[in-house]
Amino acid sequence: MATVRENVSLLFKLYCLTVMTLVAATYTIALRYTRTSDKELYFSTTAVCITEVIKLLLSVGILAKETGSLGRLKTSLRENVLGSPKELMKLSVPSLVYAVQNNMAFLALSNLDAAVYQVTYQLKIPCTALCTVLMLNRTLSKVQWISVFMLCGGVTLVQWKPAQATKVMVEQNPLLGFGAIAIAVLCSGFAGVYFEKVLKSSDTSLWVRNIQMYLSGIVVTLVGVYLSDGAEIKEKGFFYGYTYYVWFVIFLASVGGLYTSVVVKYTDNIMKGFSAAAAIILSTIASVMLFGLQITLTFALGTLLVCVSIYFYGLPRQDTTSIQQAETASKERISGV
């Protein structure tokens, strides 16, 4: 009976990872199409804000189905959202940290060469693994650590683009760039693992946690809209440049966000990283057929590294999908002596 449960659990995790990978790959392809085909480009900041709103509405809908009645839904929202400002503040941390990460990544890209940025930013993968070990009291085997760094190298090669000469001279501050990329990498690892810890440290519904986080996310993205494109949005309108394809991209981003939370809940952030790498490869292969993109040697080598790293990380190992508790039994034996 236990074996059957384990097999069902494994199949469910594989299903979540597969769907997340496919959604992420489709999103990347659709996003590339909208940014290259639409004559009047939309404001990406407004798209991010609308994505947060849709994720919030979808989470409320799923919670309504989970609770079974409108009355229970209201009670759940009143107790866990309106009546729990402390929990709201707790879930606002990832939103704020992700906002800092995005700004630091942009600052780093402005002060570093594109190639240097591509390599250093992938350090967020081993940083996530390190945060997982430190914050969730987990252990990774030597093979798993090797596979994590192999994944880091593989993603770097897959996304590698040769530097292009330009006549425009841009003043850069490498020291500022490396400082910004270090902060962005730390923020990426911390925010993801922090959210995982909050999800797995209590019996609160996943969808309640999502609602708490998306509420703060809406506030953060609205601030970003105002600071980045406020003047232009006043002139052209909030939905300037929106087409059916743009709405499709926003919908995919929303569904992908929900599946990401499911993956974090039932697997972990490291597996999410492997899934994201697989999505990059799938979207690039699809772009070859749809947009005439050419496969390079570095992409082929990177794909090989990613596949090998996924295989090695998936070898039989200790379960890392639940927070490990301290071994109180061994401590009791030591104290007894």
Automatic annotation (TrEMBL):
Keywords assigned by UniProt, alphabetized: Membrane, Sugar transport, Transmembrane, Transmembrane helix, Transport
Membrane topology according to the record: Multi-pass membrane protein
GO cellular component, one term: Golgi membrane
Molecular function GO terms recorded: pyrimidine nucleotide-sugar transmembrane transporter activity
Pfam families: Nuc_sug_transp
Signal sequence extent: none
Subcellular locations according to the entry: Golgi apparatus membrane
Regions crossing the membrane: 12-30, 42-64, 145-163, 175-195, 207-227, 239-262, 274-291, 297-315
Keyword set includes Endoplasmic reticulum: no
Family: Belongs to the nucleotide-sugar transporter family. SLC35A subfamily.
The protein, known as: CMP-sialic acid transporter
Lineage: Eukaryota, Metazoa, Chordata, Craniata, Vertebrata
